Amino acid sequence: MTQGVGTLTAEQALKSLDGMTADLEPIQLSEYQARIKEAQALMQANRIDAMYLNAGTNLTYFTGLQWYASERLVGAIVPVQGDVTLIAPAFEVGSLTQAMVVPLNTLLWDEHESPYDHFVQFLQAQGLTEGKLALDESCSYSIIANLEERYPAAKMVDAKVITAACRMHKSAAELKLIQRAMDMTLAVHRATGAMLHEGLSASEVRAFIDEAHRRVGASGSFFCIVLFGQGTSYPHGVNYEQHLQKNDWVLIDTGCKLHGYHSDITRTYAFGEATHEQKTFWQYEQQLQLAAFNAAANGRACEEVDDAVRDELANIGLKDNYQLPGVPHRTGHGIGMDLHEWPYLVGGDKTLLAPGMCFSNEPMVIQPDKFGVRLEDHFYMSEQGPVWFTEPSRSLENPFNLDD
Q: Which domain holds residue 278?
């Protein structure tokens, strides 16, 4: 049996977990204020007069205000200079004010009014209609279409040039939260491996993982993929229930959120004995993950990390062009307040690696219709180069790096 697998009951495994968040605090007001200043500097450099942040992650990143996107327009107008203004339904102002971290001016509209009329009139009154209006990339088409009726479409641009440029470089406070979230999920992985037993359903494992994440201090699992046997050849799961059998191949991919920041870790291992082919592909995956890590260097393009994986695939005799058997998807994604965010370790992404960037490293190798192997850990770029958040699995026999 694989080391650390099938050694405890579910109750014993849960009892082995302790809270891991007591010494942490969320992002502070001063950091939100610094983010707004950075955005305004980028706006000035790009000749953008105003930026609209829709309810969702970007609004939270820059202001700390957590609100959901809906058919009612809620968002923030960031001018190139001066204070940020919240545009929102008048009847929600009490709840929104309570949720504010950065103090915001308010531009309110009533249910029978068009918020877009208020929006454009506000821009005009502030003299913010000469330059470009940058729109949050998460805006629905309805928002864009309504603004196009009232504002020159030629002057509207994608706010990604501002939002992505800010968010892809994590601060020390952000790295600390991501690190702890990763530590928490790795502890959950170890507990999960320990409680596996024959006959267990994938649903039962997911329920355990959710409770385990609560035990370490999260609000539960943000997502969870549990796959056995042939199901592991499908990167994002199957639509039928599975039950763990002796010598099954196991793939578990899960993560949580901590003060708004994500973890995301995958482990693949045998519940019993692995076949020769499974052992070989597990070694391939380890080689591919290491090739990606070694290729990451400040100043190199993101796509070069993915290229290193494709080169290694060719060296070991697998398909290197996103086909099977091989690695059908990108090597990795950025991570932070969104599970997947810019930039991406994939062909065509020419973003240059720089300090503060965070990435998954998960070049999942698949033997179609048989099994898949995904080992997923994350790294961040320091001034000296890449640094692992969590140590990758050392071996198939000891996937959780347990002490002997």
A: 10-23+169-388
